[in-house]
Every structure is written in structure tokens, then in C-alpha cells.
Amino acid sequence: MNNLEPTPTNAANAANPATPDTEPRLPRRDPAGHKGTFGTVSIFGGCCRVPSRMIGAPALAAMGALRAGCGIARVVTPAPIIDAVLAIVPSATGLTLTVDSSGEVIAHEAVAEMDHQCASSSCVVVGPGMGDGAAIEAVALRAVMQDSTPVVVDADGLNALARVPEMWRDFRAPAILTPHPGEFARLARSLGVVGDAITPTARPEAAAALARRLGCVVVLKGAGTVVSNGIETWICDRGHACLATAGTGDVLAGVIAGLVAQHARGATAISLFDAARAGVFAHASAGESWARTRGSESGLLACELACLVPAQIDRLRA
């Protein structure tokens, strides 16, 4: 699959061919391009089930995708909260998921919408703020069963996959998984993968082991985020403690998806591994920029982080 293709290494890393350049690079954007040129990201997220309502997560993911430069972001979310989500990110378009009287998404209708979005999108994000239940399990599984559209699985999408018995048998998508250590532990346990996602020296092999198990790219979040496709493994040397706050992971999922949407095909195509590295690097550098300009160790809002991403992405364009 294209997400397993290795990238060149520099001379300093010649002794370790599994370690790519420290700083990723991105192609320049087509100066004659339009919003259709730069891809569509569809985000499945949000929850309105009683008593829990999660509105911000899909909006922040859409914000991340748009700030990363994708042409169109679609938020696919439960009908009762669609207006609230779009009020946060009015530049996105919205599609609704039907819910029952308790606010639970109707699983079979959500699966049908996933099929439609996979057919019409450049990249799909599944999971931000979706909670648990039959619908998220069905949607997440459907996303990774198809083999044509890149998928970023985050947050509740990862937990849902961990609950599906023998999920690996149906995993065919060109996919990027973005777990934090807790999500990694649940998913690894369900797959029989042994790995320590917390100890710094063990984290690279843990990410690589999960990537090899599913044939995907794994972004193991935390201080020194690790990106691995099972063949190459890269550790981000940027970041700041201010990033340890709600919503920044949703922004990261959107940023990665936005880069995939722009560069999955055509003359500017890059691997999913490199798109993930670039997204992680830009996200971490944006956190550093916020801390430096504010002179603060904490207090970052995820929406502020998203606004700092474009400048960091421009730094990576060749």
C-alpha cells in the first residue's frame, strides 16, 4: 500500500535507514489551484446522546483540516448539534446523521453516509467526540474496511475499533491511527500487540509493532510523538507542555487529514507516513510558537493552536 512506501534518508542517518530526516518537507501548492484542487476532508464526529453532548471535537478537527490547507471540510455529525458545530467553524459544510429519541445515531444510516463520503472525499476522519455505542463501532469498522480512501482514525474511533473482535481481519484502508498512550493500550491489547507506549525508549517500537500489525501508519501521541509505518519510525523533537489541553488532539487529526487530502495523489503526492510527520511537526511547532509569543507554559486554547498551523506548514514547503 502507498502508506508503507519508504522515504529517502539523509547522510546523517545513513547508519539507520529506518530513521528519516528530522524535519519533514512538503511540496509547494499549485498557484493556479482552487478549492477542488486541494481536496475534501470529511469528519465523522460529535455526540448528542443523553446526557452527554460533545460538540467541539469535530469542529476543531475541521478547523485543523482547513488551517492545514484543504479545500473543503465537511462535518458529518448528529442532526441536533449540527448548527452548534457549524457556529464554531462556519467555513465548513455540514451533513447530518439521524438519531433516535435518546440521541443515539442510527447505525445503518451512518454506515451508508460513510460509504458516500468515502466515495466523494479525499480523506475521512472518524472518531472525534463520537462517544461509544453501536454506531461508532459500525462507522469506524466501515471506514477501515474500504481500501480506496485514506482514513484518519482518532479518539473514540480508536476505542471503537478496539471493541470489535478480530477487527484486523477486515482492516484494508490506507489509514493513519492517532492514539494517545491509553488508546494505544486498548487497541494493542485487542490485537495481541505487546508494546510500552509510555517509556520514551520503548515508544518507537510500540508504534512500529502496531503499524506492522495493521499495515497502517501510527502516530503515537505524547511528548516526543512517534510516527511509524512499521518500516520507518520518526520521533518529533518539537512540542511544548502547553499542548497538553483539551482539543489539541482533534486539531492534529484534522491537520494530518488536511495534508493527506492535498497530497494523496497527483504531481504533489507524498506518502501517508510523510503527511503524518508533517502534520505532527507543524502542530508541535505551532504549540512552541504560542508559548514563545505568549510567554506562558499553559492556557493554550485548541482554536488558537489551529490559527498558528498555517505559518508552520509554510515553513515545510520545499
Describe what this molecule looks like in 3D:
- With 318 residues, the protein is of the alpha/beta class.
- It has one domain (33-316): Ribokinase (UDP-N-acetylmuramoyl-L-alanine:D-glutamate ligase), CATH 3.40.1190.
- It is 41% helix and 12% strand.
- It contains ten helices and nine strands.
- The chain has helices at residues 56-67, 82-88, 107-120, 134-145, 156-162, 181-191, 203-214, 248-263, 272-294, 302-316, and strands at residues 40-44, 72-78, 93-97, 123-126, 151-154, 175-178, 217-220, 226-228, 233-235.
- Strands 3-2-1-4-5-6-7-8-9 form a nine-stranded mixed β-sheet, sandwiched between helices.
- Helix 8 crosses helix 9 (272-294) and helix 8 (248-263) packs parallel to helix 10 (302-316).
- It is globular, with a radius of gyration of 18 Å.
Strand runs, count: 9
**What is the quaternary state of this protein?**
single chain
Sequence of strands across the biggest β-sheet: 3-2-1-4-5-6-7-8-9
Characterize the largest beta sheet: strand count, sense, and whether it forms a barrel: 9 strands, mixed
Stretches with pLDDT under 50, minimum 5 residues: 1-17
Q: What percentage of amino acids are in beta strands?
A: 5-15%
Quickly list its features.
single chain; 318 residues; alpha/beta; UDP-N-acetylmuramoyl-L-alanine:D-glutamate ligase; 9-stranded mixed beta sheet; 41% helix; 12% strand; disordered N terminus
SSE topology:
Blueprint: E1 40-44, H1 56-67, E2 72-78, H2 82-88, E3 93-97, H3 107-120, E4 123-126, H4 134-145, E5 151-154, H5 156-162, E6 175-178, H6 181-191, H7 203-214, E7 217-220, E8 226-228, E9 233-235, H8 248-263, H9 272-294, H10 302-316
Parallel strand pairs: 1-2, 1-4, 2-3, 4-5, 5-6, 6-7
Antiparallel strand pairs: 7-8, 8-9
Helix pairs in contact: 1-8, 1-10, 3-4, 4-5, 5-6, 8-9, 8-10, 9-10
